[in-house]
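Q: What structure does this chain adopt?
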Amino acid sequence: QVQLLESGGGLVRPGGSLRLSCAASGIIFSSYAMGWYRQAPGKQRELVARIASDGSTNYEDSVKGRFTVSRDSAKNTVYLQMNSLKPEDTAVYFCHVQSKIIASLQYWGQGTQVTVSS
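A:
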């Protein structure tokens, strides 16, 4: 059974930082791309950052230079370091994994709330 356990969300002031973590179990970590999506109220879910099994990354334009995605194979965990947070970053953040072999094989975490407000 695949499980994605997210942590690290919360309330932070503008300009602050948070680090999200997503611990994966039940998958062969090296065979999956890992990513973070977010969904703000009334908006569609969007890709924030993604890291492939080879370590290559891509980011949504508005977070480039502020967010960093990384993965630790020893811990089967993917991280999202978020710096210089803005109110528009407020959303529920979801961990996502996708098999590099079978693209339709993908899983979602339960989501963690990030609120940026003074």
